[in-house]
């Protein structure tokens, strides 16, 4: 995938295959002497039993420049938390498993509830938010990276390339977003990016006209990747979405808070595969159906905040324009796959497009019915303003869980 194309909106950092992993790690180890690097791993307990996480830990065990690893553990009981601590014990770096369902963490959640600041629903967004709060409370890292725990093709070079742009003190970047081709088992994957986000952004530009925000999102080669790195001073003012619009929400926050020259995307892998969500056409509250609706709402909310006026007629026109754009792109994906010896099931792809088109209308109706909906978890700056002791109590609760259930 090596090239040197720049689109002019954000910087793209490519893998030109001219720098070895050893050289990257040597530089990162030098940077980390004065700019400590932390990694956040949001994990379900079920991922400890999956095919990916054990290999990820084997790779991370060989990383010399990480100062701290924070694992956010969801959907675990006490016995599973004890097992998780043993599971992650192979990591040689300083590491902490945050048991998000512990009595102490639930008590802190009730405390936030009394301030009207508690996250509204469990999930990856809440998990990441809690881990970021713990990292802020530790106050000992300059760079934070996040990636998922279900990456089947994981290699430690992914992490090195992800953190390098924000760890290098000579670079101006405050945030780096990873990108890669989604291929696996002889197929092109990444359905939501290919069949929803890309054609939706094309359709939005045609329907509502030029918007800098749309051009910004279109600059990212893989806007839904779960891999990004940031310099930690921007974390206290970061708004994390509580729904499945996390990745788009984080990009929107970077658009809100940072200059375009402070944001980059970086190529981290030649091939990437992870756990696949079901399309779930029969249940709009699950799978890619729920994800597509939340992503649409996140984009609509951001455009409305920048002054775009949406009406039912706009959403109907948007659906029709999206549908045509998605089918046009599908032809290109099919030909690309064919030339590279990969497969695309055109029937399943068109069924996905039909579902996503319906969910554009669904998301638009939810937006119109609830224009004041704000599914963002409060920033840590706001939590600190309401409860100045909370961050230190969060760190103490995590430490007490480690000690009691060791």
From TrEMBL:
InterPro entries: Nucleotide-diphossugar_trans. It comes from the Bacteria. SUPFAM superfamilies: Nucleotide-diphospho-sugar transferases. This is Glucosyl-3-phosphoglycerate synthase. The lineage of its organism: Bacteria, Pseudomonadati, Pseudomonadota, Alphaproteobacteria, Rhodobacterales.
């Amino acid at each position: 995938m090596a090239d040197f194309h720049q689109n002019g909106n954000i910087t793209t950092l490519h893998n030109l295959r001219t720098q070895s992993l050893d050289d990257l790690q040597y530089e990162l180890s030098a940077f980390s002497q004065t700019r400590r690097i932390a990694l956040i791993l949001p994990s379900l307990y079920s991922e400890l039993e999956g095919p990916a996480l054990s290999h990820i830990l084997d790779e991370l065990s060989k990383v010399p420049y990480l100062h701290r690893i924070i694992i956010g553990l969801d959907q675990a009981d006490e016995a599973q938390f004890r097992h998780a601590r043993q599971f992650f014990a192979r990591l040689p770096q300083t590491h902490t498993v945050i048991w998000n369902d512990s009595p102490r963490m639930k008590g802190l959640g009730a405390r936030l509830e009394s301030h009207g600041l508690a996250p509204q629903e469990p999930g990856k967004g809440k998990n990441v938010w809690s881990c970021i709060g713990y990292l802020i409370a530790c106050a000992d890292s300059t760079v934070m990276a996040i990636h998922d725990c279900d990456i089947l093709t994981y290699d430690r070079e992914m992490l090195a390339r992800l953190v390098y742009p924000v760890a290098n003190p000579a670079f101006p970047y405050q945030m780096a977003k990873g990108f890669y081709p989604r291929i696996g088992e002889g197929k092109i994957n990444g359905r939501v990016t290919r069949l929803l986000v890309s054609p939706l952004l094309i359709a939005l530009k045609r329907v509502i006209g030029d918007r800098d925000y749309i051009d910004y999102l279109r600059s990212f080669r893989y806007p839904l990747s779960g891999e990004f790195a940031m310099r930690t001073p921007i974390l206290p003012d970061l708004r994390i979405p509580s729904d499945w619009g996390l990745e788009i929400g984080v990009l929107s926050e970077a658009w809100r808070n940072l200059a375009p020259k402070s944001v980059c995307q970086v190529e981290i892998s030649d091939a990437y595969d992870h756990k696949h969500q079901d399309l779930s056409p029969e249940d709009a509250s699950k799978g890619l159906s729920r994800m597509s609706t939340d992503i649409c709402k996140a984009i609509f909310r951001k455009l409305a905040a920048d002054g775009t006026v949406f009406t039912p007629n706009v959403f109907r026109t948007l659906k029709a324009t999206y549908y045509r754009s998605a089918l046009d792109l599908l032809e290109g994906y099919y030909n690309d796959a064919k030339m590279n010896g990969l497969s695309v099931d055109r029937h399943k792809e068109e069924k996905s497009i039909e579902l996503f088109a319906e969910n554009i209308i669904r998301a638009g109706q939810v937006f119109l019915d609830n224009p004041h909906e704000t599914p963002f978890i409060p920033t840590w700056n706001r939590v600190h303003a309401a409860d100045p002791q909370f961050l230190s109590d969060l760190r103490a609760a995590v430490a007490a869980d480690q000690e009691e259930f060791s």
